[in-house]
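Quick start: read one record
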Amino acid sequence: MPPTDRRTFLRRSTRRQFLQVAASATLSSMALSGCGWTLANVRPPASRSSSSTELYIYTWSGYTDQDLLNRFEKETGIKAVADVFDSNESMVARLQAGGGGSYSIIYPSDYMVREMVNKGLLAELDSSRILGLDQLFPKFLNPKYDPGNRHSVPVSWGTTGLVYNAQKLKPEPVDWSYLWQYREQLSKRMSLLNDVREVMGAVLKLLGYSYNSTNPQEIQQAYTKLVELKPYLASFTSDAWRPQVLSGDLLVAMCYSSDANEIMEENEDLRYVLPKSGSSVWMDTLVIPKTAPNVEGAYAWINFMLQPDVAAQICERLSFATPNKEAFELLPSEIQENQSLFPSESALERCEGVAPVQEKITEVYDNYWTRLTSA
């Protein structure tokens, strides 16, 4: 998921906010996955005490379920309880306000790991207590947002691209430029994410710049390009595109790979493409806050989540790509070969993780975004 300390992000939907709203609606489809899992009884966070026999987890909705928690308790003797947050920013705000002292495991996205380290919120990990780091794909070790994985362990990842109806769009899209080239035919039947850094980043890549450009002139060029497209857009949305794509009201929508992969199971005509000029790749992680009351339990959870069979089931169940090589090898061939979940290395080389930028550059992005979305 995308990054920065942008203030406006709290007021907009994210892929995780959709998961929280839609958890009950997707329960039936989850049951069809064949894993036999049921959704966990998650609830909004509440202050509480903790002990060595209890582990409180602060995570995204849809990342845990009751069978997972039950198995962890059976294997470790520790009762795990999952509370949910709807954005990285709200999670950090709660921790800084002192309301997250009971949590021993948190699931921040890649860029937020760096932010949390800078704010002094995370404990440095003792790698000697972690079993299974060597099972991860090398490309997920020593990331730029956390050199040496000193504070975080990757747990899931994905990309940002376009979902579309292959029967109704000929030729099929291969890049962001398609939206401009066929804007007359797509008028009011296409949507972009409601996310400043993802949308501006996509256009910056189209123009040959970095997804994380800090050059005001380049950012202005991306804004001008988007102004050209704005009259033809149905909306900026990070969640409402799903039923509209399924109903055929939208022919193409900018989205996250995990969401695209989920709805493609409901309509065989839908496809997901990672634009050839490049896009974003995001990572969600496991971290231990400095205030963790149950550090032993936290390491037990990290080791549990690194178990290949656990990681493989999560991939099948939730449509998030796993960074675990041994878990990947346990997946059915149709999932391993699913390009929407696991793009080719050549495609990923053109992608970037959305990175924090200085506050003055954040203001440049936000000012252009406000002008674009309010016009």
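The first strand starts at residue 54 and ends at 60.
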